[in-house]
Every structure is written in structure tokens, then in C-alpha cells.
Design brief:
two-stranded antiparallel sheet; 362 residues; mainly alpha; single chain
Length: 362
């Protein structure tokens, strides 16, 4: 990797996807299902075991240091609970590794010479001391690389003590077996990384194994798995407590409502008076509404009556005008003749009455 690529990766890891305004990289979010949640938590086996004998190759999901930085920033304000996804991923990987270890043990049991349980226990003791020496030597190399000379010397003293115990255990094991069988190489499967270990491996071989990237990578994965289990258990317990608290609050509210209803039932006078006031207020409101409706109805009736009266008068006047316009000249002549006849009869009657008065006077 070039220096420029290393610098870009460091900036991505520190500042995230939006460090230089590159919007094309923001098309996928860290919460997307295509993103590896184990990578966000820095425990993906594809990263940890890269370059070892058990290199898993490229992960099927997205790995991006910038997305990890985005997640670390966002997780300070919100809990995304990605630990559960990472825990499931590591559990599946470790379970597969343990199955391979069991298969290797069965294969060794089939190929190697059968020994008694007592001899097997003595050989196991030698293997345990080999493992202890190898871990201590790996620690010595690490402390020496860090420049901690005093601590490294103390660990070397522990290595010498473990070597002495190993020589004693090998002597006990040698005395319990024939010389021909003792010279045969007894293999053992490492419980951590499934690698084969020999009973007579020297210190350099042990240090290379227990201080190697493969063994330390498996240790890191297993420790991370235990940490994730603890974190997930704590978060689940916290969620359960919050859920239980909410349930208790609801139950408390229901009990309070029940207590109030019981207190109302114990004071019937108060409840009856309250109910009476409610009924009276409802009846008064209904009466006010009825009066308002009746008044509005009367107003509408009066308005309608006046309008009808005016309309009838208009219709009558229109009829009169129409009848006057519809009279024929013949009717007018008849009426004129009638009036003239009546006036003539009136004058004759007046003349007859005057003559009768004169005759009476005579």
C-alpha cells in the first residue's frame, strides 16, 4: 500500500465518509444490511486472520474504515445494538473452528498408538507446560519490542521455572512408556486455533506458535466474543428492566384508576350530587338550545308570513289590472246603457212621487 493510500485510510478512519465532501461515498450507510457489523466493531475474522495460514479471504459484506468512523460517531448518541449481530457472527465462526478441532482430535486418535489413561494424563501435562512456556516466550518478545527490559527479565525467570517443570514431567512420562513408544512423536491439537502441536517441540517452535498471528488472532476473537456476550447480556437486562418499569407504571396507573372508582362508589351522596349537577347542566343546556331553536323558527315564520302577504297583494293587484285590461267594448256599452236606464227610471219615479204629493195636497 502506498503512502497516499495509507494516509487516505487514516483520514477515513478518523473523520468518516464526509471528510472531504465526497457525496458518492455516502450512498451506503453504516446501518445498511450490506455492511459488516463485525467490521464496525473491529472484530471481523476476515480482518483478524488476514495473512495467516487460515486466511478467510475477502468478507462478503462491505468493509470500510470511513463507515466505522461514522458508526463510532453516531453510537455516542444512539444505541444501534450491533453487538448482537457481531456476536452471532463470531459464535458461528468459533463453532465451526471447534468442530474442526474435534475432527482433528478424532483423526489423531485413529492414527496414533493407543495409550492408557494414566499415560495420556502424563502426556497432557507435558503439553500444558509446553503451552505455558510458549505463551511466556511470546510475552518476553513483546515486552522486549516495547523496550520494557525489567518486566521481560521477570517473565524469563518464569520461563526457566516452567522449563524445569517440563523436564520433570517428561521424565515421568518417559518412565511410564517403552523407549520405542516414547520416541514416537505425539501430536496434540491446540484448543484455541486447531493447529497441531508436538510433544517434543522445542522452545523456538512453541514461541513461534503461541506468539504467532494465527494463535493470537484466535485469542483476540474468542476474547471479543466473550466481551460481546457480556455487553449483550447487560443491554438485554437493561432493556428488560426498562420494559418491566414501564409495565409497573401502567399497572400503577390502573390501580390508581381502580382506587378512584372505588372511592366514588364509597361516597354515593357525593357521586349523586355530582351526577345531579351534571344532569341539571345538561337539561339547562338542552332548554337553552330548544328556546333558541323556537325563537329562530318564529322569526322565520314571521318573515315568511310577511313575504306571503306581500306576494298575495301583488297577485291581487295584478289580477285587477289584468281584468280591467281584458274587458271588451260591448261590456262597456252594456254597462253604460244600464246606468242610463237606471238614471231614467229614477227620474220617472221622482216625477210620479211629486205628482202624488200634489194630488194629496189638493
Amino acid at each position: 500500500m502506498s503512502a497516499q493510500a495509507q494516509m487516505r485510510a487514516m483520514l477515513d478512519q478518523l473523520m468518516g465518509t464526509s471528510r472531504d465532501g465526497d457525496t458518492t461515498r455516502q450512498r451506503i450507510k453504516f446501518s445498511d444490511d450490506r455492511v459488516c457489523k463485525s467490521h464496525l466493531l473491529n472484530c471481523c475474522p476476515h480482518d483478524v486472520l488476514s495473512g495467516t495460514r487460515m486466511d478467510l479471504g475477502e468478507c462478503l459484506k462491505v468493509h470500510d474504515l470511513a463507515l466505522r468512523a461514522d458508526y463510532e460517531i453516531a453510537s455516542k448518541e444512539q444505541d444501534f445494538f450491533f453487538e448482537l449481530d457481531a456476536m452471532d457472527h463470531l459464535q458461528s465462526f468459533i463453532a465451526d473452528c471447534d468442530r474442526r478441532t474435534e475432527v482433528a482430535k478424532k483423526r489423531l486418535a485413529e492414527t496414533q498408538e493407543e495409550i492408557s489413561a494414566e499415560v495420556a494424563a502424563k502426556a497432557e501435562r507435558v503439553h500444558e507446560l509446553n503451552e505455558e512456556i510458549g505463551k511466556l516466550l511470546a510475552k518476553v518478545e513483546q515486552l522486549g519490542a516495547e523496550g520494557n527490559v525489567e518486566e521481560s527479565q521477570k517473565v524469563m525467570d518464569e520461563v526457566e521455572k516452567a522449563r524445569a517443570k517440563k523436564r520433570e514431567a517428561e521424565e515421568v512420562y518417559r518412565n511410564s512408556m517403552p523407549a520405542s513408544s516414547f520416541q514416537q512423536q505425539k501430536l496434540r491439537v491446540c484448543e484455541v486455533c486447531s493447529a497441531y502441536l508436538g510433544l517434543h517441540d522445542n522452545d523456538r517452535r512453541l514461541a513461534d506458535h503461541f506468539g504467532g498471528k494465527l494463535h493470537l488472532g484466535f485469542i483476540e476473537i474468542r476474547e471479543k466474543l466473550e466481551e460481546l456476550k457480556r455487553v449483550v447480556a447487560e443491554k438485554q437486562e437493561k432493556r428488560n428492566q426498562e420494559r418491566l418499569k414501564r409495565r409497573e407504571e401502567r399497572e400503577r396507573e390502573e390501580r390508581e384508576k381502580l382506587r378512584r372508582s372505588r372511592s366514588h362508589s364509597k361516597n354515593p351522596k357525593r357521586s349523586r350530587s355530582r351526577e345531579h349537577r351534571r344532569h341539571r347542566s345538561r337539561s339547562m343546556s338542552r332548554e337553552r338550545k330548544r328556546r333558541t331553536r323556537s325563537k329562530s323558527r318564529e322569526k322565520r315564520h314571521r318573515h315568511r308570513s310577511s313575504k306571503e302577504r306581500f306576494r298575495d297583494q301583488d297577485l291581487a293587484s295584478c289580477d285587477r289590472d289584468r281584468s280591467s285590461r281584458d274587458r271588451s267594448p260591448r261590456d262597456r256599452d252594456r254597462k253604460d246603457k244600464k246606468r242610463s236606464y237606471e238614471s231614467a227610471n229614477g227620474r220617472s219615479e221622482d216625477r210620479r212621487s211629486s205628482e202624488e204629493r200634489e194630488a194629496g195636497e189638493i
